[in-house]
Amino acid sequence: MFGGGGGMDPRKMQKMMEQMGIDMKDIDAEEVIIRTSDEEFVFTDADVQLMEAQGQKTYQVVGEPESRERGESASDTADDSDEGGVVDADDVEIVTMRTGVDEDTAREALEANDGDLADAVDELE
Questions:
Q1: CA dist., res. 12 & res. 32, Å (int)
Q2: Which end of the chain is more exposed for a tag (fewer CB within 10 A), N or C?
Q3: Distance in Å from the first CA to the final CA of the chain
Q4: What span, in angstroms and rounded, lies between the C-alpha atoms of 48 and 69?
Q5: Is 115 a domain residue?
Q6: pLDDT tens-digit profile of 53-84?
Q7: Residues 82 and 44 in one domain
Q8: Checking phi first, is residue 71 left (phi over 0); if not, alpha (psi -120 to 50) or beta?
Q9: What's the CATH code of the domain at 44?
Q10: Whole-structure pTM over 0.70, yes or no?
């Protein structure tokens, strides 16, 4: 079994991690949002750490999230949006600039393609 002290000295742990090429740093995050197909987990006061090892980045989020249900379609979220749907105004502008169509046509194409810019542009070109 392991002998007593209840854990490793944090300075020794840091030194070992440096020797193995692992870099950790705190991130001063204001908000972290994790979206799934059904809901969003919103962390407004979370501790976030970034660990880099062998070219891989791992983020650790510690905190208590607020859970919110995600809408199923644009009509479900129409009351929550100034634009009447889930389409971002910047995306509408990008599609209009790229294809030369008016904003309503661009918005309809984005809504029909679940907000996918590339698919909306392909549909209109």
A1: 31
A2: N
A3: 69
A4: 23
A5: yes
A6: 888 899 999 999 999 888 643 334 444 444 44
A7: no
A8: beta
A9: 2.20.70.30
A10: no
